[in-house]
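S.,

Sequence below, as promised.
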Amino acid sequence: MSAVGDVQVGQTVAERTVHLTRESLVRYAGASGDFNPIHYRDDVAASVGLPGVLAHGMLTMGLAVETIVAWLGDAGRILEYGVRFTRPVVVDPETGADLVIVAKVGAIDDESARIDLTVTSAEATVLGKAQVRVRLP
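The prediction came back faster than expected:
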């Protein structure tokens, strides 16, 4: 893994897979205060036309950006972060769901770099235009 100041466009700077379970969702609900039943009750999710219990969007977004923190060495280097939610992350009651996150350098200027995050689950992109602008040292 390269140092933050030594980056090139196209370079992969971080990647990881995060396994989510229904317990993960319950823990996140408690920490965030988001107790919407689509995040823990199959019957409610089905009644509103969802394919199953969904991971919280903010949980998915947070796990994605956390992927680059070790590479940055300091989360305070994050200047901006934005995503589009493109598909839900369905968390199976028995097998859970995997989030696969790959972070690549998309652009560089004098003081910052844009890191593009590719975030997939079940081979589908779940966050679109996931971009983090970070301050270079």
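The helical segments are 22-32, 42-47, 57-66, 69-72.

Coffee later?
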